[in-house]
Specification:
- The protein is of the alpha+beta class.
- It has three domains: 9-92; 126-178, Roll (SH3 type barrels); 186-265, Alpha-Beta Plaits, CATH 3.30.70.100.
- 50% of the residues lie in helices and 21% in strands.
- It is built from nine helices and nine strands.
- The protein has helices at 2-5, 18-48, 57-82, 84-92, 94-107, 109-124, 168-173, 200-213, 244-265; strands at 132-137, 140-149, 153-158, 163-167, 177-178, 186-195, 217-222, 225-228, 232-241.
- It is rod-shaped and about 95 Å long.
Amino acid sequence: MKMLDLFKSGGFGDPSTFQGAVLVGIIFAFFAWLVGRSLRLAVQRLLAHDKHARLDLMAVKFLAKLARYGVYVFAFVAYAHFVPALSGLGSASLTSLSVITVILGLAAQNTLGNLVAGIALLLYRPFKLGDRLQVIAPTGSETGTVENLTLGYTLLRTDDNRRVVVPNSLMASQTTINLTTDDPRVVCSVLMNISYSADVDKARAILLDLGSKHPKATQVCGCPLTQLGASGVVLSLDLWCADAFTAIGLKCDLLEQAKKRFALEGIGLPQALTTVVLRDERRVVG
């Protein structure tokens, strides 16, 4: 009871006095920090005991962060109602507070938009942690693995170990290609240009032979002629492979092997066209 007497009128912890308001603020801040830390530790234990990965890691982490911020906001609101000076100020200036809220909302619309978009991504779940995504960034098309989803941004780790930070509002509005599915297999298309004078059937046979013998190719689909260019034709060797990452190495290997094999078999590659412009320098004599 003596502890409670500190917070009564006239006591050291009386919230109507300055020192009392400071003491109550410290107590509220401590309990908010304690609850937030307990939530973080509880989530860590929950994920550590989830050996079969039944929980959505991205959803759990995102909701835990949202809950911690909610605890801090609730603690501040409760503190403002507990201290008479702040409570009276809030009641007397409700209209002013509404105007300030609107102004802050307009100023922070991008931040709030990222937060709402993050919640939308969590609800619709177009991707999860560990998925490989292809997105459009200022540097062009980027492919990376989802490493984290925060309240404002989605973090992707590329194959060359760069970090691409994409705002959640952009992730929710742009067209994103999810390269991680239940069946990760993809078709790898190797385009090979040969000259018009080259034997198309012989070149096709060489490409099909290289594709069928490559260890990274699981199945050869075919090798149709797909384009008639200005200086040659294009053959497309289409093959199934394990995933999108494997397709990159497979394409590079087959291009190099095809170049060497074509040179041995006398399959000509198209030559670059050179345009010559002749200037008419006739003089007009008046």
